[in-house]
Amino acid sequence: MRRRDFVFGFSGAALAMLDNARAQPAGRVWRVGTVGPEPRDRGQYLSDAFSQKLAEFGYQQGRNVDLTVHFTEPRIEKFAELLVPLVANLDLLVVWSTIGLIAAKKVVPPALPTIFLGVGDPVRIGAVQSLSHPGGNMTGVTYESATETWAKRIELLKEIVPNLDRVGVLKAGNDPNSAYAMASLEPWLPALGVTLVAVDFTSADELDAAFSEMMRNNVKGVLVISGALTFVNGKRISELALEHGLPSVHGFRETVALGGLVSLGPELVAIARQGARLADKIMKGEKPANIPVEEPTVYEVWLNLRTARVLNITIPASVTARADRVIE
């Protein structure tokens, strides 16, 4: 699961970009809107990655694409409020997160091609018929490539904390991805040998109480379920984990950069680039119904040794060796 980078010669890349630019329909300006959870400063880099990849395919702002970027509160109803007026003026919608997709499924007209990014289980929530044959106006990129990844996160935390037997599970109560994650964990619990203490929160104001509840239940570590709400509150979550002396494992490497202990998860920038490739296919005439849903292609382990020192934890050499990025 280590990242592999591929470097192409400049001349080949330049020729590819030129070929792609020539391939775009003349005179057509595609109105594309992306919608993600706010605050903007937590997600702008993903929108930038998407637009940069579009540019590699030959799409230039104002010439053959009109790309607008939008952010809203990480709640289904707020996504829906934003989408209702927005979709009337779009040719293609790109929406981030499971809750964003739930909102889009409610309000997006069936004729509007829609790409979803970073979604737990689009089949389970009824957005597509199957990953291989979406069958409607939606396709995209999932967040996980396998359900056992949730168990692997707990295994990673157990390797760091050998006596780990009670794990707090911090999850957004209003995010359907939470139910998907818990269902994915259930079959692995006997082998993992841990008891899960699940605690919900629905806003940043509830995080202090959520950690207090976990401490009352004597947890020795915390698994943070990935979702829009945990992504945008990553800094506060990592701070609270440190304050309570809890080693934490995450799906988002971004949270580890902000002070979380360790993460195992897909690279969101890579997902954004995958989304741009799907957008290119749609703008060249393919129907979302016939474009298979993709899975993440890049998984990474990030480790924060600064946080380990604060927690007075010695990280096993086996974990350090597996880490794609170590924050000293």
Computed CA radius of gyration, to the nearest angstrom? 20 Å
Q: Into which percent range does the helicity of residues fall?
A: 40-55%
Distance between the termini: 21 Å
Average predicted local confidence, pLDDT: 90
Structural classification:
alpha/beta
- Net shape: elongated
What is the number of beta strands?
12
| Secondary-structure element string | HEHEHEHEEHEHHEHEHHEHEHEHHE
Low-confidence stretches: 1-25
Largest sheet: 7 strands, mixed
Which strand order spans the largest sheet, edge to edge or round the barrel?
7-6-8-9-10-11-12
Strand content: 15-25%
Q: Total helix count?
A: 14
Task: Characterise this structure.
- The protein has 328 residues and is α/β, with parallel strands linked by helices.
- Helices cover 41% and strands 20% of the residues.
- It has 14 helices and 12 strands.
- A 7-stranded mixed beta sheet has the order 7-6-8-9-10-11-12, sandwiched between helices.
- The longest helix is centred in the N-terminal third of the chain and has 17 residues.
- The protein starts with 9 loop residues before the first helix and ends with a strand.
